[in-house]
């Protein structure tokens, strides 16, 4: 940690403290918690972009996949759902995987006309076999208590277990996409990941058997106590009174602080690991590949393999952040996965913070999240000031006041362009 | 067996909608591919350029409507198009001057330019929301149908109706005219030839005295025009919603890559390939199969390969297949 780092982090901490004193500790801790999750997300993207120069525009998909894990791990099982369609689903997926594996083998081994004929036949036959098994299983699951469940349900395991599982989900998807799109030119990876992001979100929105789709999943178990339980505990009320707080405020703050502790532990562990990795021979190799692929390949480094490796690790961290996010929210709302918010905003975080620098990514994540939250009220204030002199009820005044809500995207775009132009290395440059 | 009705159903639900959608995609992909050919980066802001152009065109339409100008039965938006194109061209030229030129002079990596275009995308998205809002807007005030399903049934006595919306015909006709004009420009004018030379070999073009700034400016103007026209046609055909244009980015990129990035002819072919696959994979063929089968027989399932929600998966799958087996696209495009 250099002096510059410490100053920058002190400044961000100061912003949070200022928010606490002026806007209340509840909002301040809310911003801090989301800032910590954003920092984890930015760390993941920084691994792909900062270490390896991979442009991933499908982050929203990996975040969403990670968010699926709390639903599948921590939710209590839906009674009868597995018996109704679980076996059918497993069979369907096995058939699909078998067909894809067979297609890959044919693609590698067969030549000429055999390959040209057998490949589509296997794919089409596999697809229809899969649908024949999949459709009835889904129908059976979705028929169970559709107003409250209608999904496969979870395993009823502790929610913290869902975090590594979320990372695994994202890593699996990253392996599939990385196998196909890496090794092509850089823009192609961007376009291919843009697609995979859209598709994953579409799956979560429409596959009701999985996580109820747009009907949302509520009441996902928490790793921390509930406010109501704290308020009814005499010991807690007494402690709160000794701080001069009423039980309701104290309980919300205590719960938020508990989350802060959890997230901070994950973040610090990740930063520690990434710093170690970046300083190791492996980190030097990654930077060598990023700076000159041809030279690194000539030195015997397998560029495509290393790219695949870092793509998977980075995506896994994004999945972890997605699982943390759903844990914090306590609900899964697939409709909220907007690429502008979950892909491109994270890019702004990484670029502003300083690509290639782990601390920079953390700083960028927290700072940009703070701005993302605060720009809207500031925009309202600004518009109020501008329109103060105008006559009430004029159409222009109404339009200006209304459009303050759209200031966010514009501000983020301006920040991104300014940083790219005048400080391309970001706030905390890579050494 | 009722081939006639099956054919009408196929025309009505697959061929006509896919043709107009394909024309819209082709126009969008042409813009992406031209920018790629001349400026050598994938422009992520293209979807939002389309949205902005359409938004301005809608404003122009409202202005004309307020003045009582109308070219009924055609939609007023067609009259407002030149205004929309002019404003959009000014915006992208301003963007190029303020943003892209710096990186071009520095000869930055293409991936940095892509990142910059993401920033531009944010700003254009913000401007569009600022100017026109996020709500869905219907601005088609022309005649709705050329052939309505009811009239068609009465005229032919077939059980299946065929409806032909005027916007679908306008889309295809406009697209043909625009493409014809573009190819004439690229192949016959001095500026067009210098653009193609610049795209083929930048150094050689510079040596022969071609002014790069002029080529770039003309490219941006053409791209703005194509984006505005494509966006307005899409908006007339469906409706205007800013976020939908961002989502069009994927099929448009897929179309440009399938045809071969940098190749205008490929962009057009790619647009129609994507549109026809998307529509036919997500269409439920139950009705068509019912007509083709024996009398009184109906298939048990919907015969739909994928739900319409997954239409993005289709363009994505085509994109991946092309990238895996023919990275330069069907028509020879650029690939590094």
UniProtKB/TrEMBL annotation, chain A:
The chain crosses the membrane at residues 28-47, 54-75, 81-106, 113-132, 152-176, 188-204, 253-274, 308-326, 346-370, 406-423. Its main location: membrane. GO terms for cellular component: plasma membrane. It is a multi-pass membrane protein. The keyword Repeat does not apply. Keywords: Cell membrane, Membrane, Transmembrane, Transmembrane helix. The keyword Cytoplasm does not apply. It is found in: Cell membrane. GO terms for molecular function: branched-chain amino acid transmembrane transporter activity. It comes from the Bacteria. Pfam families: BPD_transp_2. This is Branched-chain amino acid ABC transporter permease. It comes from Phaeovulum veldkampii DSM 11550. The lineage of its organism: Bacteria, Pseudomonadati, Pseudomonadota, Alphaproteobacteria, Rhodobacterales.
UniProtKB/TrEMBL annotation, chain B:
GO terms for biological process: D-alanine transmembrane transport; L-alanine transport; L-isoleucine import across plasma membrane. The chain crosses the membrane at residues 6-39, 51-72, 78-99, 111-132, 168-186, 215-236, 305-325. It is a multi-pass membrane protein. Keywords: Amino-acid transport, Cell inner membrane, Cell membrane, Membrane, Transmembrane, Transmembrane helix, Transport. GO terms for cellular component: plasma membrane. It is found in: Cell membrane. GO terms for molecular function: L-isoleucine transmembrane transporter activity; L-leucine transmembrane transporter activity; L-phenylalanine transmembrane transporter activity; L-valine transmembrane transporter activity. Signal peptide: none annotated. CDD domains: TM_PBP1_LivH_like. It comes from the Bacteria. Pfam families: BPD_transp_2. Belongs to the binding-protein-dependent transport system permease family. LivHM subfamily. This is Branched-chain amino acid ABC transporter permease. It comes from Phaeovulum veldkampii DSM 11550.
């Amino acid at each position: 940690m250099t002096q510059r780092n410490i100053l920058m982090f002190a400044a961000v901490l100061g912003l949070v403290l200022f928010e606490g004193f002026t806007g209340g500790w509840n909002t301040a801790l809310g911003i801090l918690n989301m800032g910590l999750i954003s920092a984890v997300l930015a760390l993941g993207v920084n691994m792909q972009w900062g270490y390896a120069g991979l442009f991933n525009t499908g982050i929203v998909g990996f975040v969403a996949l990670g968010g699926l894990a709390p639903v599948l791990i921590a939710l209590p099982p839906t009674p009868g759902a597995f018996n109704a369609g679980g076996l059918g689903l497993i069979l369907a997926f096995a058939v699909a995987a078998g067909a894809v594996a067979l297609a890959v083998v044919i693609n590698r081994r067969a030549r000429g006309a055999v390959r040209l004929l057998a490949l589509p036949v296997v794919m089409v036959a596999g697809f229809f076999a899969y649908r024949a098994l999949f459709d009835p299983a889904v129908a059976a699951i979705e028929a169970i208590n559709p107003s409250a469940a209608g999904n496969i349900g979870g395993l009823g395991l502790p929610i913290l277990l869902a975090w590594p599982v979320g990372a695994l989900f994202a890593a699996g998807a990253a392996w599939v996409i990385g196998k196909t799109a890496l090794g092509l030119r850089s823009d192609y990876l961007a376009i291919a990941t843009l697609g995979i992001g859209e598709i994953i979100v579409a799956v979560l929105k429409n596959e009701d058997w999985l996580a109820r789709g747009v009907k949302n999943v509520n009441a996902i178990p928490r790793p921390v106590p509930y406010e109501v339980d704290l308020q009814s505990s005499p010991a807690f009320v007494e402690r709160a009174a000794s701080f001069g707080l009423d039980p309701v405020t104290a309980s919300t703050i205590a719960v938020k602080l508990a989350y802060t502790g959890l997230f901070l532990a994950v973040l610090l562990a990740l930063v520690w690991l990434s710093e170690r990795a970046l300083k190791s021979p492996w980190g030097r190799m990654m930077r060598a590949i990023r700076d000159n692929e041809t030279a690194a390949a000539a030195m015997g480094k397998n560029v495509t393999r290393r790219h695949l490796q870092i793509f998977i690790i980075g995506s896994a961290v994004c999945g972890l952040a997605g699982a943390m996010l759903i844990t914090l929210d306590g609900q899964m709302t697939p409709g909220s996965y907007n690429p502008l918010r979950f892909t491109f905003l994270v890019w702004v975080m990484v670029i502003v913070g300083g690509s290639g620098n782990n601390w920079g990514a953390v700083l960028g994540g927290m700072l940009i999240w703070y701005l993302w939250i605060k720009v809207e009220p500031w925009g309202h204030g600004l518009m109020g000031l501008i329109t103060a002199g105008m006559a009430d009820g004029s159409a222009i005044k109404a339009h200006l006041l209304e459009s303050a809500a759209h200031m966010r995207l514009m501000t983020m775009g301006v920040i991104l362009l300014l940083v790219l132009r005048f400080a391309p290395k970001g706030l905390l440059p890579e050494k | 067996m009722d081939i006639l009705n099956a054919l009408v159903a196929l025309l009505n639900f697959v061929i006509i909608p896919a043709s107009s959608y394909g024309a819209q995609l082709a126009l969008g992909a042409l813009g992406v591919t031209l920018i790629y050919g001349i400026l050598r980066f994938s422009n992520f802001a293209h979807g939002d350029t389309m949205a902005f152009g359409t938004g301005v065109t809608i404003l122009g339409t409202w202005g004309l409507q307020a003045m009582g100008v109308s070219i009924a039965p055609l939609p007023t938006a067609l009259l407002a198009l030149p205004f929309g194109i002019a404003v959009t061209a000014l915006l992208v030229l301003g963007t190029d001057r303020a943003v892209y030129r710096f990186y071009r002079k520095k000869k930055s990596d293409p991936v940095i330019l892509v990142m910059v275009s993401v920033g531009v995308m944010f700003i254009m998205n913000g401007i569009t929301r600022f100017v026109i809002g996020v709500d869905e807007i219907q601005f088609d005030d022309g005649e709705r149908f050329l052939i309505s399903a009811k009239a068609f049934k009465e005229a032919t006595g077939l059980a299946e109706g065929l409806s032909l919306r005027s916007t679908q015909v306008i889309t295809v006709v406009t697209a043909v005219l625009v493409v014809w004009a573009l190819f004439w420009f690229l192949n016959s004018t001095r500026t067009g030839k210098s653009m193609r030379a610049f795209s083929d070999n930048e150094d050689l073009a510079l040596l022969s005295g071609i002014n790069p700034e002029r080529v770039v400016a003309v490219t941006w103007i053409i791209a703005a025009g194509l984006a505005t026209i494509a966006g307005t046609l899409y908006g007339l055909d469906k409706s205007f919603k800013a976020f939908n244009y961002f989502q069009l980015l994927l099929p448009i990129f897929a179309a440009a890559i399938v045809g071969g990035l940098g190749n205008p002819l490929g962009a057009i072919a790619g647009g129609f390939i994507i549109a026809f696959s998307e529509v036919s994979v997500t269409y439920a063929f139950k009705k068509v199969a019912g007509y083709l089968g024996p009398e009184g027989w109906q298939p048990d399932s919907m015969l739909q390969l994928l739900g319409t929600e997954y239409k993005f998966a289709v363009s994505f799958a085509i994109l991946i297949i092309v990238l895996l087996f023919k990275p330069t696209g069907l028509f020879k495009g650029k690939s590094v």
